[in-house]
Design a protein that fits this description.
The protein has 443 residues and is an alpha/beta fold. It folds into two domains: 126 residues, no CATH class; 316 residues, TIM Barrel (Alpha-Beta Barrel), CATH 3.20.20.70. It is built from 16 helices and 20 strands. The strands form six sheets. Strands 10-18-17-15-14-13-12-11 form an eight-stranded parallel β-sheet. A three-stranded mixed β-sheet has the order 6-7-9. Strands 16-20-19 form a three-stranded antiparallel β-sheet. The radius of gyration is 22 Å and the shape is globular. The N terminus is likely disordered. It binds flavin mononucleotide (FMN). The site of flavin mononucleotide has 27 residues, from strand 12 and helix 10.
């Protein structure tokens, strides 16, 4: 094993995304071969403790750390980011992701709710993929455009946090878009986008949104053909979410810039005859190559992001986990249900769409948490569709608060136990993914 020899440290408080040339406050040199070596704590505005660990099998002489970001103080939760320009090109010239380096740290280390031991700082090289490079992102993470709940503040926060924030344009409600679009457009100067349900929108909706210059438009659930041309002609990237192989082939034929392969674990709507994320994603990756593919469905922590990368995806698109963030437009009852929910309580069904009178195509059932109406009508969908009184009883019950509204949620809901800010979550997901990849095969 060879070891890092030098490291430059910078203050988190003086770091700015928009000023990548972060001020170097000092340099530490260490001969350390283990993760336990520590230097004395410095001021809170600089790194308190740093000790590089090993990089397997390489001797990185002449190693230069171009950028080193330590998160402490107000950035508590996100720990560190390390980019090794030049060295990476030498060591992993063809890697689609870059193996992380783990560092130990002190003050402010640890990521709430994500299982990092207190005091252990996961500092890592950025996970660089075709997706991050395409959009110039720091992390291979996209916010799912959850209709209604992925509002402007959440999308902007994810983009500011280094991921790709996608506004949940849903069925194109003009009032909602008029309110939320300016929030994301003015809330970030990093790439952001808007997502729609293809079956529910018309071309005018897409054209109005394109006037706001989103970097990307994502389409899901339905025929995207009428919208693909105008989106690309406007200079926006076309992201297509696919739920089966037929949709995946169509996405390739339409020249999608990014394809999202959604497995059936995902929260919200998805394929009636789909497959789980684990077997679905690699098939789409192979089919779509070289188009970058994001994995979606059942990813709620950094280990899931790491798994997505291991499957050949260029990143992860995450929905349910972001419902429990400070910026999500989720009713507190929904957040509470997600924080308390269990995967085995979730179920894919069309019953609640039928009951609420939604015109969602039956081809796309939705995964929700348990609901009394599911127990009552499971397997009797046609009967419910024909029973106007039952549907009215449901709608009146929800309006009165006697019945809960549907809570769309992922099978991975057990992993959601806290409510961080979205930017902290993005950073924590990335750090944990990097750590998971570093540890893979070592247990
Ligand atoms: C509350 C909720 C609303 C959603 N709404 C949309 C939507 O409007 N458009 C869309 O493309 N996908 C939507 N999705 C699906 C996501 O795009 C994504 O496939 C899914 O959330 C991934 O699974 P996960 O929830 O396990 O992360 C929604 C998901 C959730 C949980």
């Amino acid at each position: 094993m060879q070891h890092l020899r030098s490291i430059h440290t910078v203050s988190a408080s003086r770091y700015s995304d928009r000023s990548p040339d972060a001020t170097v406050l000092g340099a530490e040199h260490t001969e350390s071969s283990t993760a336990s070596t520590r230097t004395p704590a410095q001021s809170t505005s600089s790194i308190s403790t740093i000790a590089p660990t090993s990089i397997t099998g390489r001797k990185p002489d002449g190693l230069e750390f171009d950028e080193f970001l330590i998160m402490n103080g107000k950035y508590r939760g996100y720990v560190a980011k390390l980019m090794l320009r030049g060295l990476l090109a030498r060591i992993w010239p063809r890697a689609s992701w870059r193996p992380p380096v783990r560092l130990l740290g002190g003050r402010g280390a640890g990521v709430a709710g994500l299982g990092f031991p207190a005091g252990v700082m996961m500092a890592a090289m950025a996970l660089c993929t075709a997706f991050t490079e395409f959009f110039s992102l720091r992390h291979p993470i996209a916010l799912a455009p959850m209709g209604g709940s992925a509002g402007g503040a959440l999308a902007a926060a994810v983009s500011n946090g280094g991921g790709l924030g996608l506004l949940g344009g849903g069925n194109g409600d003009p009032g909602w878009l008029a309110r939320e679009l300016p929030i994301v457009a003015e809330g970030t100067d990093r790439p952001w986008g808007v997502g729609f349900q293809s079956w529910a929108i018309d071309l005018g909706t897409v054209e109005r949104v394109l006037e706001q210059n989103p970097r990307a438009v994502m389409l899901s659930f339905g025929d995207p053909r009428a919208f693909a041309g105008p989106i690309r002609q406007a200079g926006a990237a076309l992201i297509l979410q696919v739920t089966d192989l037929e949709e995946a082939r169509q996405a390739v034929d339409l020249g999608a810039d990014v394809i999202v392969a959604q497995g059936t674990e995902g929260g919200g709507h998805g394929a009636r005859r789909g497959r789980s994320t684990l077997p679905f994603v690699p098939v789409v990756v192979d089919l779509a190559a070289p188009t970058p593919v994001l994995a979606a469905g059942g990813i709620a922590d950094g280990r899931g992001v790491a798994a997505a990368l291991a499957l050949g995806a260029a990143g992860a698109l995450i929905g349910t986990r972001f419902q429990a963030t400070a910026e999500a437009l989720a009713d507190p009852s929904v957040t509470k249900a997600i924080l308390e929910g269990r995967g085995e309580d979730t179920e894919r069904s069309t019953v609640l769409d039928i009951a609420r009178g939604s015109p969602w195509p039956s081809k796309y059932p939705a995964r929700t948490l348990g609901h009394p109406f599911l127990d009552q009508w499971r397997g009797r969908e046609a009967e419910l569709a024909a029973d106007a009184d039952a549907r009215r009883a449901y709608q009146d019950g929800v309006a009165r608060g006697d019945l809960p509204a549907p809570v769309w949620a992922s099978e991975a809901v057990d992993l959601i136990n806290d409510m961080p800010s979205a930017a902290d979550l993005v950073a924590a997901l990335a750090a944990q993914a990097e750590d998971a990849l570093a540890r893979a095969g070592t247990r």
